[in-house]
Design goal:
193 residues, alpha+beta, 4-stranded antiparallel sheet, 4 helices
Length: 193
């Protein structure tokens, strides 16, 4: 029986204080603006929300050796899809700590390795929109980069997120790289950490 679901993910979410310029782009260009908060998927799809509590110790062990690291969002790129369309995204830099984090999590959940199964393996990215073609994506990136002011944030935890059939994703739990609960963020539902 397939346990994984597209209604949950394990991801890195930038602090809300950095969202405004990201959301300004996403609101115009990302058809998933209402469904997702700004995020970098590490394991998606993930396990159903009813299994989250049982998986917290597994996640905590997987991230306990990761030290907080600075993430910079300075440049855009895109993925071309077989359909001809493209996804435009911000490139988290440096990529290496995110790749290591994703690999550590995938080792803990080998059945959930969808994010690393593309030809090039796992590519850390924060999606900001869709384009109808590669040419359209290049023009959009050119415009976005003229207006973009790079931003940085400290990555010190991962987040388990979930959604309902008709509701957007919300943070269910945050797990600090120390392996402990991370403090709840503004906007988390009551009881979320």
């Amino acid at each position: 029986m397939e346990r994984k679901t597209h209604k949950s993910a394990l991801c890195l979410i930038p602090p809300e204080g950095t969202w405004e310029p990201i959301q300004a782009i996403r609101e115009v260009h990302d058809r998933q603006f209402e469904r997702w908060m700004p995020h970098v998927n590490l394991l998606y799809p993930f396990l159903p929300a009813r299994e989250f509590e049982a998986q917290i110790p597994v996640i905590a062990r997987a991230v306990q050796e990761i030290r907080p690291f600075l993430v910079r969002l300075a440049a855009f790129s895109f993925f071309q899809h077989p359909s001809g369309g493209a996804t435009v995204w911000l490139r988290p830099e440096p990529a290496e700590p995110l790749i290591r984090l994703q690999q550590d999590l995938e080792r803990a959940f080998p059945e959930l390795g969808d994010t690393s199964r593309s030809a090039g393996g796992f590519t850390p990215h924060l999606s900001v929109g869709q384009a109808s073609s590669a040419a359209h994506a290049r023009r959009l990136i050119e415009r976005l980069e003229r207006e973009w002011s790079p931003l940085s944030f400290l990555a010190d935890h991962v987040a388990l997120i979930q959604r309902g059939a008709a509701t957007p994703f919300r943070v269910a739990r945050r797990i600090a790289f120390s392996g402990q609960d991370a403090p709840a963020a503004r906007g988390d539902p009551p009881g979320a950490r």
